[in-house]
Specification:
With 299 residues, the protein is α/β, with parallel strands linked by helices. The chain folds into 2 domains: 163 residues, Periplasmic binding protein-like II (D-Maltodextrin-Binding Protein, domain 2); 108 residues, Periplasmic binding protein-like II (D-Maltodextrin-Binding Protein, domain 2), CATH 3.40.190. It contains 9 helices and 12 strands. A hairpin with a 3-residue loop joins strand 2 and strand 3. Helix 3 crosses helix 8. The longest helix is centred in the first third of the chain and has 19 residues.
């Protein structure tokens, strides 16, 4: 009887091991395998960051989508980051779906497996690398200051002692606050204005929208030059002030605390980005959304 009990115990352990390795068809070996098994990749991005990513108000959710009920489909989102994410999904042979958590939740890590990857113009910094893994950069943008047309601000020196807006948990907020950007020294072109007051909003796009709505407790904001150009093109009452203050290397981000290993997914996304750089796909998307090729590293 004792021998029979031991044999049964060994068989149970072997069965559980096979199931954990995918032998029972219930659990994937890693995150990439899990994504392919379910048929979609869940990408976090910003729904209010035109032209990188924003809602398509005319898009309708497909009836046959595999996306979770609380996620957006490719028909409901648009922009440069959105197109890049769709290209990643297509290369993996799965549908691309979008989660839209707050930016500070994305940069904080510990995503609890709520989404698979962030393709949302995240800057690679040394601080973020402590909790997140990054792909190779897929494009590069300069950070600039924009001010309201009627602010009376004509030069960088005029910003001393004034208030400027920035998105919460962005490199723009860090720069304004005088914190360590975690970027190479060669990528930083200017120090923040003296005695500046930082006014944080949920996203830096909201800074421009607040100025357009008549808000007056700050004179301008810091964000990507692509966002400011889009704000100006949309008729917002803002202007760029001076030259870029630093440059950002932007990449896909992966949570280090993910339950399933993301190593093979990171490697695959790197291959996809490298191929998109090589065949000109990223350049074409950049020209489509920004009117300029931002996919080459600044020299």
């Amino acid at each position: 009887m004792k021998k029979l009990y031991v044999l049964l115990s060994l068989l149970i352990v072997a069965s559980l091991t096979l199931t954990a390795c995918g032998g029972g068809g219930q659990t994937s070996a890693d995150l990439l395998a899990d994504i392919k098994q379910r048929g979609y990749i869940l990408v976090s991005t910003d729904p209010n960051y035109e032209p990188q990513s924003f809602l398509n108000t005319e898009g309708k959710r497909p009836a046959d989508t595999k996306c979770p009920a609380d996620a957006l489909t490719t028909a409901e989102m648009q922009g440069f980051d959105v197109d890049v994410a769709i290209a990643v999904g297509d290369a993996l042979g799965v549908e691309t779906c979008f989660a839209t958590p707050n930016w500070d939740a994305i940069t904080a890590g510990n995503w609890a497996d709520k989404w698979d990857v962030s393709i949302g113009s995240m800057t690679i910094t040394t601080e973020r690398q402590k909790i997140l893994n990054f792909s190779v950069p897929y494009y590069y943008t300069p950070a600039v200051i924009a001010v309201g047309k009627d602010s009376g601000i004509a030069s960088f020196d005029d910003l001393a002692g004034k208030a400027l807006c920035a998105g919460t948990a962005t490199t723009y907020e860090t720069w304004l606050s005088g914190g360590d950007l975690g970027l190479p020294a060669s990528s930083i072109y200017a120090q923040p204005p003296a005695d500046v007051t930082v006014v944080p909003l949920e996203t830096d796009q909201e800074c421009a929208q607040a100025i357009a709505a008549g808000r007056t407790d700050f004179v301008g904001y810091v964000t990507s030059e692509t966002v400011v150009d889009a704000n100006i093109a949309a008729g917002m009452p803002v202007v760029k002030l001076g030259s870029p203050v630093y440059s950002e290397d932007l990449a896909a981000a992966f949570d280090k605390s993910v339950t399933l290993s993301a190593d093979s997914l990171i490697a695959e996304v790197n291959k996809i980005f490298e191929a998109m750089h090589a065949d000109g796909t990223l350049s074409e998307l950049s020209l489509k959304w920004f009117g300029v090729d931002l996919t080459q590293a600044p020299k």
